[in-house]
Amino acid sequence: MSMIKKLGFFSAPLIVMGVGALVAAGCDPAAVSEDVCGDCGSVATGDVGISGNAKLDGFFAAVSTLNSSAATLSGNFELGLKNLEAAFGVEASGELDARVGKINAAIKAEIEANASAGLTVKVEPAKCSANVNVAVEAQAQCEVKADCEVDPGNVSVECSGSCSGSCDGKATCSGEAKAYCKAEAPMVTCEGKCEGSCELEASAACEGTCKGECSGECSAYVKNADGKAECAGQCDGMCTGSCEASVAAKCEGECKGSCYVEQGSAECDADVDIKCDAEVKCEGKCEGGCTGEVTPPKAECDAAADCQAQAKAQASASVECTPPSIQASFMFSGDADAQASFEAKMAALKLNAPLMISAFTNYTALFTGEVNGKAAFDPAPVAVVTASLNTVISAGADGSLFADIPTGRIGCVIPALESSVTMLGTLTSEATADIAAQAEFVTAFSTGFKG
After folding, report:
1. How far is CA 258 from CA 145, 186, 254, in A?
2. Which residues, in sequence order, are CB contacts of 10 under 8 Å at separation 6+?
3. Distance CA 104, CA 107 (A)
4. Which value, to the nearest 10 degrees, does the dihedral of the CA atoms of residues 76, 82, 87, 89 take?
5. What whole-number distance in Å separates Cα of residue 50 and Cα of residue 231?
6. Quick count: other Cβ atoms within 10 Å of Cβ 394?
7. What 3-state DSSP class applies to 240?
8. What value does the mean pLDDT of the chain take?
9. Angle formed by the axes of helices 54-88 and 132-145, nearest 10°
10. CA of 118: how far to CAs of 181, 331, 449, in Å?
């Protein structure tokens, strides 16, 4: 099933009917004077103390966060696109899909004219997770306002998926991926994977930053002590010297960083500080980020369950992604007079493509639950927030919603619910078209604009 079809889950009519039921039940905002209610604020502008009740305002905060994130991510993709349009001399007009089509065509034409071997692209995908700290703080703040006894030392959550932080419990790897743990020092030769600096014994492929000689094209150069240029960036050939990797990788030499060996090896005596070929599954408490459903800790009090519901919604809306690592190289083959212009355009592409791909990845994760074409959040964050809002409106229809809300604030709640319904509907509708257009650029870039 494509990522676009997955957006079809959103059903605004149910929520709209619920809001209508609230008004029909006699909760008419016009019946409450502004003097009593005061300044209600707006979900759209981030005013989330609307009802005066933390259990409800947390849901407004989730909608506001989702709206703000969508605007930021769309803006980042738009900024990168504008920069490329300026660099390649493409008119910035029309809908997003048309603009993406024009810039893709312009970039492809430049590459075909000036780099006969094409553009070689390597992408280390981004990773996305819900912010655990958001869930913990939202839960604690809500429970404090409800006079619950909160444990300030409990800063972890239950994570149904993969934990990108520390795991207090049994850590395993998803699927059939191999598990590695940090080997005890000292080690002369790393038989596993090295994270940090690897002193190469001979020329070898480097998945990080090559410092020394590069047999292919290097993304950046510096002058060494002898005044000669040497590679200090990503090498698309063989590297001689040292290789510094931000992620654990095989080291064909001496590992100067941390060495991770397969679980069960003699050097590995515990399942702590685990790394995987894929994702880490945490059977316990997770601190950091969670790819999956987040369940924050709760106190023993009547308000805990309601507080937990809004905290989960806020955590879902706070999905963040690490920037992808991108290498793009080419061999110039055009006329000498065109070389400077072409290289300037390629420099603009290398600068702006990571911003655009990062924005697309995060945007897609929020609205489809997919990351790099695979399901990462099920249900998708926007679906979690929508379901939460449905629950709130159902409580309003039977009157229980207003039990803990100050009378003077009831007139603020109805417009906020209506605004949230409208906002979620608009966001989801726009996301369908925007994600499709953004995907066209990401796919074209990833294939070197060869399509």
Report:
1. 45, 10, 11
2. 382, 383, 386, 424, 425, 428
3. 5
4. 160
5. 56
6. 15
7. strand
8. 78
9. 150
10. 40, 8, 8
- On the question of a cis peptide bond just before residue 152, with omega within 30 degrees of 0, the verdict is no
* Residue 162, both tokens: 């993969």
Q: Which two tokens stand for residue 436?
A: 């499709």
Axis-axis angle for helices 410-446, 54-88 (nearest 10) = 30
Its pTM stands at 0.69
Q: Is the pLDDT of residue 383 over 50?
A: yes
| Bond prior to 406 in cis (omega within 30° of 0) | no
Per-domain boundaries in the chain: 5-127+322-446, 178-277
Q: Would you state the structure tokens that stand for residue 438, as one six-digit string?
A: 């953004």
**Which of 134-148, 170-184, 395-409 is predicted most confidently?**
134-148
Query: What does the chain come to in residues?
Result: 451
Helix (H, G, I), strand (E, B) or coil at 74: helix
- Portion of the chain with pLDDT greater than 70, in percent: 75
135 in Cβ contact with 308 (< 8 Å):
no
Sign for the CA dihedral angle at 26, 27, 29, 33 comes to: positive
Element (H, E) at 294: strand 294-295
